[in-house]
Amino acid sequence: MTRYAISGPARVGLPVVGTSELFPVRRVYCIGRNYAAHAIEMGHDPDREPPFFFQKNPENLDPSGEFPYPAKTSDVHHEAEMLVALASGGRDIAVADALDHVFGYGLSLDMTRRDLQGAQKKMGRPWEIGKAFERSAPCGPLHRVSDVGHPNSGRISLSVNSQLCQEGDLNQMIWKVPEMIAYLSEYFDLGAGDVILSGTPSGVGPVQRGDVMEMTIEGLGELQVRVV
Fold first, then answer.
1. What is the mean pLDDT of residues 94-105?
2. Which residues fall within 8 angstroms of residue 150, CB to CB, at 6 or more apart?
3. pLDDT tens track for 138-158
4. How many domains is the chain partitioned into structurally?
5. 45 pLDDT more than 80
6. What is the CA radius of gyration of the chain?
7. Does position 42 have pLDDT exceeding 60, yes or no?
8. Using an 8 Å Cβ cutoff, are 176 and 150 in contact?
9. Is 159 domain-assigned?
10. Does 164 fall in a domain?
11. pTM greater than 0.85 (yes/no)
């Protein structure tokens, strides 16, 4: 029997709609600038760039409904995204086979310390300090593929204090879910428990303590998160 030198961390689990089960999270991959309008608002040309990914930590996923405003920043932005959860993985997965590996879908926010991310960009450094901080990915429960299918279109939106800020459609994603899975599998050994945040539409912006964010994706319900 293996003995560890210290007590290990608890496994991160996301609730699954209609069950008492938890989905065990292994890794979190996030695609950048996957909606053309958002790429443009961030100063980039979406037609000339291959996909790129960064990572958050499993512990960053948080289904509590609260987002603690983080330290060392004065410019935290919301980014509404569809979450894709994998039941299996592998290497060099074909696009045609990619959806066979999906367990389900959910709603998530990629909260970003934009000022810190911007400073890292200027210096050509990694983004983790702006993206992978504690509780930086508020999320909702997962919907099984057997219940919702594979959403490839449908309205995605986010409001702050009832004011609409972000709005788009899943069919506007530059890289679709099967393509994201296939691309990632060329560089990583994907596995059961991996999560992909699939990009955000335009309209990202700042939040303050006391704000209430309300996110929806057609067919996947709603997510409400209070900034505390």
1. 98
2. 99, 102, 105, 177
3. 999 999 999 999 999 999 999
4. 1
5. no
6. 17
7. no
8. no
9. no
10. no
11. yes
